[in-house]
Write a structure and sequence with these properties.
Helix content is 46%, strand content 0%. The protein has five helices and no strands. It has helices at residues 2-13, 19-35, 51-59, 79-92, 103-114. Helix 4 (79-92) packs antiparallel against helix 5 (103-114). The protein is globular.
């Protein structure tokens, strides 16, 4: 683990941050959103302190990925959309930077998921005044 931290520090200090490292970071943030956990949490058991190391093996298996979803959501989410977001996170966290998706591909993957969460775009106007009681002013 210290070797990974050393590599991260070397990359940051040497200016080796790239769009692909941004994609990795986005994958971590997406994983934080899905799980409701911090990326590094020393208060958790040793195996669960590093979010990515704990979650990646669970993300690999479709039957286990629901085990990482934030329990505070109480199952109130579209499973297919959450699965797609979890798989996107998994691909962003690929150890091989060249195998990670491009940010434009991430956006393309996330846009259809937005339809699952948007509120209806209809507007209902409720009025206590009957229509016959409304007076229109002449526009001048």
């Amino acid at each position: 683990m210290f070797e990974k931290i050393d590599n991260i520090i070397i990359c940051c200090c040497a200016g080796h941050l790239t769009p692909r490292s941004d994609v990795y970071s986005f994958g971590v943030v997406l994983l934080e959103l899905l799980t409701g956990r911090k990326s590094l949490d020393k208060l958790r058991p040793a195996r669960e302190q590093n979010l990515t190391e704990w979650a990646i093996p669970l993300l690999k298996e479709k039957k286990k990925f629901l085990n990482i979803i934030d329990p505070r959501l109480d199952g109130d989410y579209p499973i297919k959309a959450v699965h797609k977001a979890a798989m996107l996170s998994y691909h962003c966290l690929n150890r091989n930077p060249k195998a990670r998706p491009l940010m434009r591909d991430i956006v393309d993957s996330l846009e259809p998921l937005q339809a699952h969460t948007e509120a209806p775009k209809t507007l209902t106007i409720i009025s206590d005044v009957p229509e016959s009681g409304l007076k229109m002013k002449d526009a001048k």
